[in-house]
């Protein structure tokens, strides 16, 4: 490049580079908590595929490098600004509702909005897959599949039981329980292998994009990853059963813990590559994913007919996009740091909570099962209620004056309560309530558990509805105080129902400021 051309282009692109560096710094500042949480999750077994997904995303961008160099940036100020603003608003909603998942998910529309705002629709079409692919880093897919974990557990147990019967081994199968002559296995939620199912699904996307010739084959390969993962998990249970049969007393997960859920990913990846190879051998059209050099003789060189002056963006419109992007990020940063909820104290302390409810008499206790109280609240009530018929229940009420990401009513440490929860309807006078019912599976303290949340005087049982209410309350009233009520009992539902009804009404009257007034 001649000196005149350097002097012509270097200052312009230097200014662009400075802006993008500043934008990246502001973006990192805005999303530092979400990024830190995401990177920290990479050190866990379920999130260990994170660096691989990030690498695949960058590789997909690198494959499009020649195509990107040929198009001229034409900023879409309206559409890009709206999409970037929507992503930033999602982030703000995640912050004030203390939902890290929403914060991580919001990075994807925010990045796509930035691409559209600064590059236009041509850049957006090319980068949609690499940027959208980052959704696998956010935990959204794991959260969605988590709602079906019990079905994955049942399938793995059924698959393993079927295999044992085929090889002539006596087996008793009951949902997630497998009883063999030498051992009883239970496929618990942690053994559903959701993280590795997501990893397989995520790798199937670029594999299908690059290796398959037609859209039907791409779709087949991507969705087959899901079923391959399920079958691999079932086969893992088979290996555990066979290993414990022939090597008793050597542990459950095999030598060097090789039968942990990671084998789902390794075995599934092998089967996925075999299936991709079989599909690729079938006759089909040209594969756009294999063109390699985008039609150029030398993939390492830029196109010969590319004129830098034709690729130079329209400066006024591009500078306008810079201003819009800076304003959106600055406003979002301001709201995140200054528009914060305020603490709301109880009008009456919890030690004044009624001790006599529906024939049950309460007595304060000092502790309750750790899974029912995984961390302390701002104000707490621990009490055992008992009636004359020796029906009793332990009650925990935790009130939060101000919810934060580390201390909130709807927390991942209580996810087990929602995993297999059912609804129970209770009534008190003219009022009817719906609460959750689940089972605490502990060999030392197994019991039925009833629980619900109290937000703005409303009983809430769905965790996603609770998050939405928390956001709306934080946004419109700048308060997010709430309470969680948990009841553990060995009595039947019919025996404990009067106490549940009285508790629901008493908690609402005692904890809701509007009712107190």
TrEMBL record:
Bilayer-crossing regions: 12-35, 47-64, 76-105, 111-136, 148-167, 187-207, 219-239, 259-279, 319-339
Name the domain of life.
Bacteria
The primary site where this protein sits is membrane
The record's subcellular locations are: Cell membrane
Q: Which biological process terms from the Gene Ontology are attached to this UniProt entry?
A: proteolysis
**Which keywords has UniProt assigned to this entry?**
Cell membrane, Hydrolase, Membrane, Protease, Transmembrane, Transmembrane helix
Membrane topology is: Multi-pass membrane protein
| Pfam families, sorted | DUF3485, Exosortase_EpsH
**Molecular functions (GO terms):** peptidase activity
Spell out the GO cellular component terms annotated for this protein, sorted alphabetically and separated by semicolons.
plasma membrane
The Methanolan biosynthesis EpsI domain covers: 326-495
Which residue ranges does the record annotate as region Disordered? 284-311
What protein does this entry describe?
EpsI family protein
